[in-house]
Structures are given as structure tokens and as C-alpha cells.
Amino acid sequence: MTDSGSDEFDPTAPDQREIGREMVDDSTGLGSLMAHVYRGEVDRVGTWRQRLDETTTWAVTLMAAILTWAFSSADNPHYILLIGIVVVTIFVGIEARRYRDYDVFRSRARVIQENLFANALDPSQGTESHGWRAELSRDYRKPTLKVSVYEALANRLRRVYLALLSVLLAAWVFRITAFAPRQDWLTAAEIARLPGVAVVAVVGVFYVVLLVVTFWPHERHAKGEFREGDPDDWKETDQ
């Protein structure tokens, strides 16, 4: 096998990229190193996954408090629900940023799984990416975010936050209609001197934008376990 430390190292050569079998058959220094690397990446994946869950927990807790207070009395202003929508949207932004960091470590773990461990278990299938070692090396030398802000926002909205924001919208509509039967719903939607028509229009435009961000077709770059892109195209972006 070609010396991986040689100046003539070709990451796309079969004997260089398919090192999984050798690492299982022989206790090599590289094998031991990669085992520690993989454990470290999985640990960081778990840490960032926990941070994502914490953001969602805070958003749900805040929602519960706002909904309880908004409907505890007819005298409580309806716009507290709109404030809740704004705050939950801020949580979406925070979670999207954390998701981009989380994907860095998850994508590294997937590269190791599909090219090293999978190859070690069944060398006849080869590796998924011919240049995986060089790609991983470059990412360790210069870590990059591989998911755009837009994709991160769409992911978090689709998975969690669109449902939460929809609950707040439904609660607000109920609050200015059925919960205020003595007033016209446009009148009930007023905030100080801001007319109800303007408030409803702003809320409507905001939710249309949410739907566009969530469902507009786009190319996926996140490297997950169940939805893969081109294994030879490990996107690097700082958008």
C-alpha cells in the first residue's frame, strides 16, 4: 500500500481512499487516530444537537406562558400574541445559526461513516467519495460552513418552528374574533393608532414570507443520514 505520508499521495487512488479494510485487519496508527477523531466528532454532534433542543424548549415554554396570559382575561391585549410571534421568530434565527454549526460536525461524521466504516465492513462496495480523505483534511485545516442561512432557516421552520408559529397565528385570529364577540374583528385587531387593516396586512405578509422560505424548492447541501446529496460534492460555503 502507498505510504499516505508520501509527497506523491493521491487521495483518489483506490489504495489510498479504501483504507477501511487495512484499519480493521491491522492495528495501524491511522486507524487508532481515526477512531479518536470519530468519537470526537460524534461528541460534538451530540453537544450541538442538545443546543438545538434547548432553543426549541425555550421557544415552547415562552409560547405556553404567552398563550396562558393572553386568554386569561378578555382585558389582556391581543398584541401580546404578536410579540410572541416576533420572539419565536428570533428563536428561529438563533436555531438556524446553531444548525449551521451542528451540520459541520454531522457532515464530518457522515463522511467518515460512509467512506471508512462502511468500506471496512464491505470493501466490495468501495467508497462513496473518491477524494474523501483530501476533503476531510481540507475541512480540518480550514473549517467551513456547508449550509446557507436560507437552507438552515427552511430546515428549522419545516421541522419545528412553522408549526409553533402557526399555533400562535391561530391563537391570535381566535383572540380577535371569537374571543372578542362584541367588536368587529378589524377593530379588535387595532394596536394603539395603528388600524386593524394594517396589522392584519403585516401579519399576512409575514406568514406568506414564512411559507415561501419553508417550501420554496432549493438544492439541499446538509449532509444527513437519510437525505444525501452528491457524495463527491461536499459543499463549502460561508454564506
Automatic annotation (TrEMBL):
- Tell whether Plastid is among the UniProt keywords: no
Q: Name one Pfam family in it.
A: DUF2270
Sequence intervals crossing the membrane: 78-96, 160-180, 192-216
Provide this UniProt record's keywords sorted from A to Z.
Membrane, Transmembrane, Transmembrane helix
Question: What residue spans carry the region label Disordered?
Answer: 1-21
Taxonomic lineage is: Archaea, Methanobacteriati, Methanobacteriota, Stenosarchaea group, Halobacteria
Show the ranges annotated as biased composition (Acidic residues): 1-10
Q: InterPro entries, per this entry?
A: UCP01500
What name does the UniProt record give this protein? DUF2270 domain-containing protein
